[in-house]
Specification:
With 407 residues, the chain is mostly helical. The protein contains 17 helices and 3 strands. The protein is flat. The mean pLDDT is 82.
């Protein structure tokens, strides 16, 4: 936010010269009036005085704040509120020490809205970076007078959710990277190595077996259509990315990932773990179950699971228990359904949901470990087999020639 220089007088007539952060000169004068300062002159910053970070934020070019910054901000705010610091002073302290320029600007905007008499929930809900779940929990904490404890739970929730997300991503990313590297190696063999063998075979006038000829034909295809293949790969990737951004494409992709071998259960349990922990956090904060379910469904990444859980919410609205519709979802484990039923009957649904979330997260960790152990040797064997096949095919005529010479 730009810093405006000003010259003015305090209520007791003392002359002051300083700077104030504001969107424009008009806002700067408003801020000064709130501080009982009558500004006689307000000077806008020159281009050379402008902060580069602020300029990038103003133009929307700065990197947005992520989960790590949000978790740190949430914990710090919880500590300050717990220490008895007024909310407005908390925001001013956090604004001064914040290093991320985007979050710093957001905190400043929240501070200004709180000064105007708005609640923390109202101020946060108008800023980007605070999702529906975050704002709903803040609203519940303000209403119940337990904002500090809610913020602590929210920070813990964000940390667990981020950890689970990273585990799932690592399991899905590793094999993709290895396969891409393998494809590049095989492509290099076909384009650069195989042609060298072809020249040797031509000079020796050896009979070429069908296996070797097949590899040579594939090599010629790669060499002659390299640019076309690259263009096709880029176009196919762009088409796929644009396709999954559409509603139908996202739904089709989500259904496919749920049924995919090896990774299907990882996707399902990862989403169910996030759902149960989010629902437990919402219920513990005193948010009604119907509103909690709506917010949980909105935060899910998989559209198919969100669609199935929407039916659960409709059943709850109709007066049914949450257990009955959950039992109809085929991929929802029966044991987990029974645990939720016990929690619902004893009035400790939020505590039982936390235990269910722990179960899902433990299973995800186990799946990630097993997949990593399984996929690594499979990929190495497949890539090694392809490379070995190419090399054997190219050396085969030489071996045949040596065998014929011995006879």
């Amino acid at each position: 936010m730009p810093k405006f220089k000003y010259i003015g007088f305090t209520a007791d007539g003392k002359k002051v010269e300083n700077t104030v952060e504001a969107e424009n000169a008009r806002d700067a004068k408003k801020l000064l009036r709130r501080q009982n300062i009558r500004a006689t002159k307000v000077i806008a910053p020159s281009f050379f005085e402008a902060d580069l970070g602020e300029f990038l934020v103003e133009k929307g070019l700065a990197k947005p704040f992520g989960r790590a910054e949000l978790m740190r901000f949430t914990r710090q705010l919880a500590i300050l509120i717990n220490a008895g610091v007024p909310i407005l002073e908390c925001m001013e302290i956090l604004h001064k020490q914040e290093q991320n320029m985007v979050l710093k600007r957001v905190v400043k905007n929240i501070t200004m809205q709180i000064e105007e008499g708005k609640s923390l929930f109202d101020a946060m809900s108008q800023q980007q970076g605070f999702d529906k779940l975050y704002c709903a929990l803040v609203k519940a904490g303000e209403a119940a007078g337990i904002l500090d404890s809610i913020l602590v739970k929210l920070a813990e929730f964000l940390e667990r959710a981020e950890k689970l997300k990273k585990q799932v991503k690592s399991a899905l990313t590793y094999p993709v990277i290895v396969v891409i590297v393998g494809i590049i190696v095989i492509f290099g063999l076909m384009v650069f190595v195989v042609p060298q063998f072809v020249e040797i075979l031509k000079e020796s006038n050896q009979a070429i077996p069908w296996v070797t000829q097949t590899v040579i034909d594939i090599s010629n295809f790669f060499r002659n259509y390299t640019l076309l293949l690259i263009a096709g790969l880029v176009a196919g990737t762009m088409f796929f990315l644009n396709f999954i951004k559409t509603r139908e494409g996202k739904q089709a992709w989500d259904r496919f990932t749920m049924k995919a071998p090896l990774f299907g259960m990882l996707v399902i349990k990862g989403n169910l773990g996030a759902f149960t922990r989010t629902l437990a956090t919402m219920l513990a904060a005193g948010v009604p179950i119907i509103d909690s379910l709506e917010i949980c469904i909105d935060t899910l990444d998989n559209t198919q699971i969100a669609k199935d859980l929407t039916k659960v919410r409709k059943a709850v609205i109709e007066g049914k228990s949450i257990t009955e519709p959950l039992s109809r979802i085929t991929y929802f484990p029966p044991l987990v359904t029974q645990m939720i039923k016990v929690g619902e009957s004893t009035g400790n649904l939020d505590q039982m949901l936390l235990k269910v979330a722990d179960v899902f997260e433990e299973e995800v960790e186990e799946l990630v470990g097993n997949l990593t152990k399984l996929i690594e040797p499979v990929i190495l064997v497949v890539l090694g087999g392809i490379i070995g096949f190419v090399l054997i095919a190219m050396y085969l005529p030489i071996f045949m020639s040596a065998g014929g010479a011995d006879e």
